[in-house]
Amino acid sequence: MANTPEVTVGAPDDLGLRKVVIDGHRAGKARSAGELRRILERAGVSVGHHDIQWLGGDCGVWPDRAVRRLTIGLLMVFGFLATACPLFHIGMSDSGDALTYGGRIAGVTVLAAAVVELAAAGAAVDYWGRRRWRYSGVAILGGVAIALLCGICLLLLQIGERFTGYTLVGIALCVWSSVALVGLVRLRAWKGLRNPKTIAIGVIISTLLAGANLAYSQIYLPYVRTPLIQSGAEFKESSLQKGAAQMYVTVHLYVKNEGQVPVYILDSMYWIDGGPANSKSDAKTAAFELIYHGAFVTPVGSVLNPGEEIAQDVVVEVKDPEQRKFEAIRAQTEVYVIRKDRMKMPAAYERSGTCCKKLDEDHKKEKGYPPGTDYRYRSDIENSSEILNVTRGRQQITVFRVDRGERPHVVVEVSPPGEQIEFDPVNPLANEEAKSRYGLSPVRGSTVEMPYMELLEKARSSG
Hints:
Number of domains: 4
Low-confidence stretches: none
Largest sheet: 6 strands, antiparallel
Order of helices and strands: EEEHEHHHHHEEEHEEEEEEHEHEEHEEH
């Protein structure tokens, strides 16, 4: 009897595992009498039940519920993998393709969170299996906390947005992670940590600092940095055709980016008018006669980086110049820009111009065309980061050139694809929220006037 090993079987834990100790050394864990027998056989111990010291219950106490345990484990693994998939998608895209440095840092952070979710899935297999790894419960707890945070962020970012598939993802993540978190708290999953409170405080502080940094780079900086676009015109030489039937005036048109934010030029417009001198009031403006108009930035969709300038000289034809009663000739410009740091414009926009018969056919199928539309550009656009794509959904931008009826102008609309916004002439700023989100704005250039007789004298002298 003196050589009989001392065998102790501990009380069952929350998974029904009972620790087996032989002569003071841990030999393993058993969930059933059969597993206990195999552990003893591997250790070369042959004892009867009466030679075993039982703690927390005798040889008939084996509370393991295998089906329940495996079901919970599979649900946890599935939840972690389901969380990791969209995180990998977003992280891989934003870490390399986000338009801002802060967006790429956010992408790397999301990618790291996806790796943690994969590690938590592996830890779940161990935690609801044999629990060989001491910190498997802690890893699962961290994975569930990240899943809950991701679900909350998805829902917060979609406040005021249209319902998308990721709205369901956010709801599912919040429900699953909340239930899992309650269960893990009951199981005291942090038991493997020596100083759980200190570590928890450190994690919370680190998360708050990282969140503040991302909010500063992703939200604050993009909105305090505003574009500064300047546009204008300048009259140059003029000449008369032989016989004085026509006068040709060269006008220099330009647009320059004086700010720190690059922009896309969606379209441009210039007007050459003749009328009273020094016209400032609406009444006198109405007295002006439109001589010529058109676009001066080609191709549409061009990028204007900080410090760059796009300029073009146009030649305007004035018929019967000697018969005109103009006091002055006036030039005005306007460009329609959208911030390049808030969206991605595909090359398809430049090639999307539609007019004539095709435009008439589309007009019959769709609503929302401004009266007198003569030309249209349309293209899908992407947000500045994938996280915004999945929460806002991709958008569509439509640019109408209205060249008939009233004074020629441009109308720009932003809407989800397939949800064309009907143009309201009474309230043309109805789409203002979507426009301000992407920094879409018309930039009216300075107005330049020149005495008509001065131009005519120059033309006569040059002839």
